Amino acid sequence: MQLTSDGRLRHLITLDGLSKSLLCDIFSDADIWARGNSSRPLAEKLFINIFFETSTRTRTAFEAAAKQLGADVVNLNQATMAGDIKQESLEDTVRTVAAMGAVGIALRHPDAGAPQAAVAAAAPGIAVINGGNNCESHPTQGLTDAYTIRERVGDDFSGLSVAIVGDVLHSRVARSNLHMLRIMGATDIRLVGPPELCPQILQNDLGASVFSDLEEAINSVDIVILLRVQRERLRAMPQESDYFRNYGLTAARLAMLKKDVMILHPGPINRGVEISDSVADGPQSMILRQVTNGMAIRKAVLSRLCST
Ligand code: CP
């Protein structure tokens, strides 16, 4: 659905099934944008953000990246769209912006099938980019995290040991990161969290080792990817103090890890829940580097999908 018959990316819905060579091509393009390329391949084109859930990083990065590539950008959100009150469907919203001449949309939506529905409704000239849907997929976050790791280790992730810590059950970032880590060659991937947020069944569902003891899981890893505890998706929120005591990444725990361990978190971060201030703001933290890299990745994706 997202690839053309000759293997080019037409939409970006999931990283699942994409090739390593395609990801590396996107990273090479991102390198060019990160170096300050000022060309404007989206000049006089219209790009639309359609966000049915809140976002700071993803929506802003798509808007800023598209504008820096020369596009006009319009932001639709749930509070101002006709959808909710006037009952317009997602498909009709996509048809409407396609009729205005948009060349691409970034869509964030709570439903599992929403990106596929948007692709089915999209006109031939419009690319759909999944800005995060349900607990399924957040492909540009996965690419951003891969690009951040690649800055340190290059294109071969095969020797890396990676822990994904926290609310794996509800995390689209965890799923996109699992896809990207496997595509890039990582095999030692550990999912870590309390059983209610990281149940043993994920070992079968996601094909990675599941741990409930944080210190056992992370003591020898190269990368720790922390996940936000998603209060809005939890029926019963764990006590934050209990969560921090058992799963929070503190300076004391960081001191037990490899000296050059990379700490990633997609944001927004819950300080004092998943991570202490000193670790979030310390030298191992890649959190703001991920945000910076997210701009180059969005430019690479937008220029690839929306410039022709
Ligand atoms: N990482 C991420 O998706 O953040 P936002 O919700 O702010 O877009």
Automatic annotation (TrEMBL):
It comes from the Bacteria. Pathway: Pyrimidine metabolism; UMP biosynthesis via de novo pathway; (S)-dihydroorotate from bicarbonate: step 2/3. Residues 10-151 form the Aspartate/ornithine carbamoyltransferase carbamoyl-P binding domain. InterPro entries: Asp/Orn_carbamoyltranf_P-bd, Asp/Orn_carbamoylTrfase, Asp/Orn_carbamoylTrfase_sf, Asp_carbamoyltransf, Asp_carbamoyltransf_Asp/Orn-bd. It holds the Pfam family OTCace_N. Its EC number is 2.1.3.2. L-aspartate binds at residues 86, 172, 228. It catalyses: carbamoyl phosphate + L-aspartate = N-carbamoyl-L-aspartate + phosphate + H(+). Residues 159-303 form the Aspartate/ornithine carbamoyltransferase Asp/Orn-binding domain. It is an enzyme of class 2 (transferase). Carbamoyl phosphate binds at residues 57-58, 108, 138, 141, 267-268. Keywords: Pyrimidine biosynthesis, Transferase. Belongs to the aspartate/ornithine carbamoyltransferase superfamily. ATCase family. Catalyzes the condensation of carbamoyl phosphate and aspartate to form carbamoyl aspartate and inorganic phosphate, the committed step in the de novo pyrimidine nucleotide biosynthesis pathway. HAMAP family: Asp_carb_tr. This is Aspartate carbamoyltransferase. It comes from Candidatus Doriopsillibacter californiensis.
